[in-house]
């Protein structure tokens, strides 16, 4: 007996899982989050201290923002997440944006190319930040988001000023960018 128009089914009882794809995604997640600096290094109490002056404070901010860039992005996202717990629509939008962040910022193997131009990480970070802020402001949680951004900025700046930079070792690319700036 033939079943015309029937949807073909698999001979397996459950869907086939592509283990190679899963292992590749797991590897990408590990590599993407590898740019994150260890939280112990970020909050090492022996490396905390007040700067000697304004120029030392600005120097620390500059170096720490480069060195702990991924950690600071995570801090901002966590602060925004906690501020949106009472706004489920905004929280759903944030969840979608987190996945966009993961795939466009944290898990990329190669630089993004747009109209045959290579887009660097800082540009991707700024663009994703702006898109995140604009979309979350459109969800009618403006005061919560503004407060969260202010709290996140204050936390990051306080850490960047107080965290000493003598024991931080930047990679060659970041060190070259810093000396040219």
UniProtKB/TrEMBL annotation:
InterPro entries: Prenylated_rab_accept_PRA1. It is found in: Endomembrane system; Membrane. The keyword Transmembrane helix applies. GO terms for biological process: vesicle-mediated transport. The chain crosses the membrane at residues 65-85, 91-107, 119-139, 145-162. Keywords: Membrane, Transmembrane, Transmembrane helix, Transport. This is PRA1 family protein. It comes from Brassica carinata (Ethiopian mustard).
């Amino acid at each position: 007996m033939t079943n015309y128009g029937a949807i073909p089914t698999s001979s397996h009882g459950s869907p086939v899982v592509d283990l190679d794809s899963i292992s590749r995604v797991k590897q990408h997640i590990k590599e993407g989050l590898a740019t994150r600096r260890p939280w112990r290094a970020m909050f090492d109490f022996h490396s905390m201290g007040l700067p000697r002056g304004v120029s030392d404070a600005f120097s620390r901010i500059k170096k720490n923002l480069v060195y702990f860039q991924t950690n600071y992005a995570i801090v901002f996202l966590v602060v925004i997440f906690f501020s949106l717990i009472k706004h489920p629509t905004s929280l759903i939008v944030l969840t979608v944006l987190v996945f966009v962040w993961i795939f466009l910022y944290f898990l990329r193997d190669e630089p993004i190319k747009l109209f045959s131009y290579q887009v660097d990480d800082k540009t991707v970070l700024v663009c994703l930040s702006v898109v995140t802020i604009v979309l979350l402001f459109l969800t009618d949680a403006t005061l919560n988001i503004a407060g969260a951004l202010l709290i996140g900025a204050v936390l990051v700046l306080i850490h960047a000023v107080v965290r000493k930079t003598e024991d931080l070792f930047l990679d060659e690319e970041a060190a070259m960018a810093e000396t040219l700036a």
